[in-house]
Amino acid sequence: MRHRVSIALICGAIALGFLGSRHTSQAQQAQDPSYQAISDKFFNMLQQDEAYDAMDYILDTNPEVQKYKSNSPTSHSEMQKEQFASLQTRIGPYISHTLLVETKVADRFAYQHFFVVYERQPISIRITYYRPGATWFCYGLTYDENVVGDLIKVADDNLSNGVK
């Protein structure tokens, strides 16, 4: 009987530890959105035809971009936002996105590669996130309008590898 009580007390302490850490984790997430939440908000803004604001939002998660923005309003990030926002003029409105690849390293670095569907053609968007401390931020964002050519090349390379 005494052994059962000890085990119950130990299990209870362990359960409280897990519940306490889960509560702390949820509180931290409320203050510090995960990188996935940043990506989700970015794509929600694209869906609402706010491409410039979406780029502004995601790039502003990076403290270095914020520093340069205050020192030079015509920075590289401003040109990048303008170019990205002009995509819609050429390839039509945003329709949807699909995550192709996601890689996470040591809960400090994350890479996401998306296939993004616009009305006239798809593009690819690659977002990298970094978290040196408690906060995730966008470490880099690139987009490629030649995703169809890349996909065809990969498919053709796979075909030629199978042919002997």
Computed over alpha carbons, the radius of gyration is 22 Å
Judged by helices, strands and strand pairing, the structural class is alpha+beta
Major sheet, described briefly? Answer: 4 strands, antiparallel
Oligomer: single chain
CATH architecture of the largest domain: Roll
Q: SSE order in H/E notation?
A: HHHHHHEEEEH
Q: What is the share of helical residues?
A: 55-70%
The span between the termini is 71 Å
Low-confidence stretches: 1-31
What is the CATH class designation of the largest domain? Alpha Beta
The overall strand count is 4
Number of helices: 7
Strand adjacency order, main sheet? 1-2-3-4
Per CATH, what is the topology of the largest domain? Nuclear Transport Factor 2, Chain: A
> How much β-strand is present in the residues?
15-25%
Q: Whole-number average pLDDT?
A: 79
- Approximate shape: globular
Total domains: 2
Describe the fold and architecture:
By secondary structure, this protein is an alpha+beta fold. It has 2 domains: 1-31; 34-162, Nuclear Transport Factor 2, Chain: A, CATH 3.10.450. It is 56% helix and 24% strand. It is built from 7 helices and 4 strands. The protein has helices spanning 2-31, 35-47, 51-59, 63-71, 76-85, 87-91, 147-162, and strands at 94-105, 109-118, 122-130, 137-144. Strands 1-2-3-4 form a 4-stranded antiparallel sheet, covered by helices on one side. A hairpin with a 3-residue loop joins strand 1 (94-105) and strand 2. Helix 2 runs antiparallel to helix 3 (51-59) and helix 3 (51-59) runs antiparallel to helix 5. The chain starts with a helix and ends with a helix. Mean pLDDT is 79; it is low at 1-31.
